């Protein structure tokens, strides 16, 4: 099976409807990630076939759960997950991908240019210092920090009525227990990622 076929089957399994141009952009992103990874060490996963499930489909599993809001912040984006796949799948979203690592944001800027992602802004900044003109409806991260730290460092960026949407592996009982009293977990949803034999969960956190 080619990576494109694996991607198409995974998108269908997630219940998403993406057109040929969006699938081409996802494939182009995968190609860029593989190319830059040889020099910049963006991800430990290097095989294209594994990248489809570990990065693209894992990021896209967020899409059916990303209801409400038009502004998405991806904190500690690294190689662009889940922000870049989210921006490709949802061109109606305004997406900011933020990382303090200059090499990673250099890659992200190049990816945005080459893929023509007009709805993505790349920011090189420590998140606690980031002061955008407009706050975000949804703030997400895939491997940034534990939940309490994630909330602490980004609470100044969340719009009224907004949500933190954290992507986690196994059910994060201990992390949830350490959340501050002024926020609450709205729900924890198990995610099924096609081709990925690992537990994945999405944690929604809101202001109490």
Distance between the termini: 47 Å
**Order of helix and strand elements from N to C terminus:** HHHEHEHEEHEHEE
CATH class, anyone? Alpha Beta
What is the number of independent domains? 1
Strand proportion, as a percent range, falls in 15-25%
Query: Would you tell me the overall average pLDDT?
Result: 94
What name is given to the CATH topology?
Rossmann fold
CA radius of gyration: 16 Å
Regions with little confidence, pLDDT below 50 for 5+ residues: none
Query: Which class do the helix and strand fractions yield?
Result: alpha/beta
Q: Major sheet, described briefly?
A: 7 strands, mixed
Q: How many strand segments?
A: 7
EC number: 2.1.1.170
GO biological process, one term: methylation
Enzyme class: transferase
Main location: cytoplasm
Explain this structure to me?
It is built from seven helices and seven strands, in the order H-H-H-E-H-E-H-E-E-H-E-H-E-E. It has 208 residues and is α/β, with parallel strands linked by helices. It has one domain (3-207): Vaccinia Virus protein VP39 (Rossmann fold, 3-Layer(aba) Sandwich). The mean pLDDT is 94.
Break the fold down into its secondary structure elements and pairings.
Blueprint lengths: L2 H11 L6 H21 L7 H13 L10 E5 L7 H7 L4 E6 L2 H14 L4 E5 L11 E6 L5 H8 L3 E11 L4 H5 L5 E9 L8 E8 L1
Parallel strand pairs: 1-2, 1-4, 2-3, 4-5
Antiparallel strand pairs: 5-7, 6-7
Helix pairs in contact: 1-3, 2-3, 2-4, 2-5
Please give a handful of descriptors for the protein shown.
7 strands, seven-stranded mixed sheet, single chain, Rossmann fold
């Amino acid at each position: 099976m080619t990576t494109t076929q694996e991607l198409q089957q995974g998108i269908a399994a997630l219940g998403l409807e993406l057109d040929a141009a969006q699938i081409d952009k996802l494939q182009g992103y995968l190609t860029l990630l593989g190319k830059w990874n040889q020099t910049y060490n963006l991800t430990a996963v290097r095989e294209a076939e594994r990248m489809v499930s570990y990065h693209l489909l894992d990021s896209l599993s967020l899409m059916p759960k990303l209801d409400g809001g038009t502004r998405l912040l991806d904190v500690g984006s690294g190689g662009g997950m889940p922000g870049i796949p989210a921006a490709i799948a949802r061109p109606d979203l305004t997406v900011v991908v933020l990382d303090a690592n200059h090499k990673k944001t250099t890659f992200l800027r190049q990816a945005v240019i080459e893929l023509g992602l007009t709805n993505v802004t790349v920011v090189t900044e420590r998140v606690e210092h980031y002061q955008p003109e407009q706050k975000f409806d949804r703030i997400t991260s895939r491997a940034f920090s534990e939940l309490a730290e994630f909330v602490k460092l980004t609470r100044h960026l969340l719009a009224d009525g907004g949500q933190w949407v954290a992507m986690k592996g196994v059910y994060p009982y201990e992390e949830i227990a350490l959340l501050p009293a002024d926020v609450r977990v709205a729900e924890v949803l198990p995610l099924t990622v096609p081709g990925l034999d690992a537990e994945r969960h999405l944690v929604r956190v809101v202001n109490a």
